[in-house]
Amino acid sequence: MRWWWYPALGASACVGCVVLPSGGVSARLYLAIAVSSVIATIVGIRVNRPTSVRAWSSIAVGIGLWALGDATYLWISETSGTVPLPSAADPVYLLGYAFLAAGLFCLVHTGWKRGELSHVANSSIVMIAFGLLMWVFVVDYDAVDVSTAAGIVGVVYPAMSVFLLGLLVHFIGGIQWRSASFRLLTAAILATMLGDIASSVGSVAGSRNASAWAGAGYLAFYVLAGTAALHPSMRSLVPYARTAGSSTRLAASFNAPAVAVLTLAAFVPPVAMALLLYRGTPIVEWGWGIVLCASLLVCLVFVRVVDLLRLLHQQTQSLRSVAETDTLTGLLNRRGLQVWMDTPRHTTKRLALLLLDIDRFQEINDTFGPEISDEVLCVVADRLVGAVGSRGAIGRVGADEFALALRADEREAMAIAESMIRSLTESVAVRHTTLLVEASVGVAFAHDDPSSGDAGSDGLIQRARLAVHSAKTVQPRIARYDPSMDRDNSTQLLLLSDLTAALDAGHLELYYQPQVDLQTMVTTGVEALLRWNDPDRGVMEPHRFLPMAERTGLIRPLAEFVLTEALSQRQQWSRSGLDVTVSINLSTRNLLDAELIDQVRRALSVTDSRGENLTIEITETVAMADPPVAIEAMHGLRELGVTLAIDDYGTGYSSLAYLQRLPVQQLKIDKTFVRDIDSTLAHRVIVQSTIDLARTLGLSVTAEGVENRETLLELRSMQCTTAQGYHLGHPVPGNEIPARVAALHGELKELATRP
């Protein structure tokens, strides 16, 4: 069945109904159009089989009652010559309004939930505002006597129109607005509202033109409602999921269209007052109504402000929880553990930190992949929690590191360390694989004297890490920190010496990972990632050597190498026809380096590159290290035309007020939020909120950690700007990028045509 046949035939019938003389054939054609709308709705329900059958059935009943009211009105008119007010048709019409409103409500919501109160407040604000406009400018209150049945009916119809208008505002927060069927229903309701207004004016003024406009509005409703039921998109109109939290529905009531409508509604009382004063209408006739409506609006706006504060509080609590929680294991992360350690406690026992490092975890990750390794981490976390119990706070502080903070003496701490090791003696079964996981534990104690210089959570973690390195060489793999470990840094010194030689020997290399524009599905940039290809140790990632380099002056020549190498590689690609931007990461030491601006300027000049070709990524923690110096450096980079991005957004000390001060153009959402947006509602809300925030601030958004097609498509539907992750490409050497980009474009070609 071709759904568009009905609106075509319906529009033709409407034209005939308007052109023909009133009464007789025109009236019967009008009734036929009404009946056809009922039939079209029933056919649409049977053919399209919508999810919300109850909602559409209620809409069909409402349309049917209106058609019955039209038939009753026509019969009274032909048998009596005139139709009294009220007539037998009026209760039928009003009952139709009730069924229609119920059906529309069920299309958006299932049952009553706390979050609906926000939408009801929105609807009430609009109803009061536009009810005031109706009463002052549409209904002739001098000619209406509400003590009579005719007067009541004359007021009820405009009131029902205002009610339907309020429902429309209620629906603005729904995802259903994307459906063509729902937009057709919305247009039908607007046509009904215009018809009711014209009918009210016509009944009071006796204007034939107004009555003709009323009839046209009702005809438009019938055709649009029938078309909405026949349109295939009606089957996808589903209510909010029952699992959606009240905070999600509350957030939906604050979307931009709803706020715009509410703002206009709030201005109605003063505008109405100004117009009535201009017309010279006596205050005693309308002043009480204006004051009453304005008072109600103030109360409702206050309710909405309270809702907004509650929503902001919920989001703050959610972000705080996420900022202090490891999303993979559910344990505390490093920041959460530091907060626990820095909190004063009434006990005489010293603060102890037990750091557990999984041995050869990188081999597990390389051999079995990230999914298996993540499951291993979750199993290890569960076993450690079982071994430790409630004796302290346990968290994941690194890729393969877990830490336990507690107040204990040395004997207790060493006994718990042994129980942590014993908890991993049993092999770990994940999927169809059984692995033997071994670990090393380093134990460190806070000094009794806080003035010793290395007190505090950061110093304690560092000492525990030194103990872990020592534990890997003994059995059982447990070691307690002692000061000699600070002096025995021969391994680190050797690594630092080799890194210095690697710069001159050409053992440092950049790998590149594609970044895809989600609107065009074309690769528009790459991120440069540093690798050390050591002849003896193999390929090492930055976390193995950059922290050490940052503590020395070696971080500056490393930044020089990355800048020059990345821009030179980009120029080679550009000459071969591949024009992309290149992104690099800066450390805290780089950003606070007074030579940074000259360093970037030289690299651009040497490689004959423009600032627009380069994006520099800075983490939130780096930007917060020394805000005045960091902001000054970032402004200097912007003057060179360089694009600035906040990397790993959401995992650091996010502050909207502070973010607005930074001259950045891009946010990069951390992969911990992105990779499970289809399964974790909290992360989906955070990602969507970040995208909305960025668009409000005029920033682009790059989502990291896209590991499957479903996540890619979901981010595109969220209107995220750019995506990056293993699904789009692993980091590869520069000479492999052109072939990888060409292959990627072939894979994404089909997705680029999707709406």
Q: How many strands, which pairing sense, and closed or not: the largest β-sheet?
A: 8 strands, mixed, barrel
The pLDDT mean sits at: 81
* Helical proportion, percent range: 55-70%
How many helix segments?
30
Termini separation: 25 Å
Q: Report the structural category.
A: alpha/beta
Strand content: 5-15%
Uncertain segments are: 241-245, 448-455
How many strand segments?
A: 17
Shape: elongated
Alpha-carbon Rg, integer: 34 Å
Strand order of the largest sheet: 8-9-11-12-13-14-15-16
3D architecture notes:
With 755 residues, the protein is an alpha/beta fold. The chain is 59% helix and 12% strand. The chain contains 30 helices and 17 strands. Strands 8-9-11-12-13-14-15-16 form an 8-stranded mixed beta barrel, surrounded by 5 helices. A 5-stranded mixed sheet has the order 2-3-1-6-7, sandwiched between helices. α5 (116-138) packs parallel to α10 and α7 (180-205) packs antiparallel against α8 (208-230). The longest helix has 41 residues, at 283-323. It starts with a helix and ends with a helix.
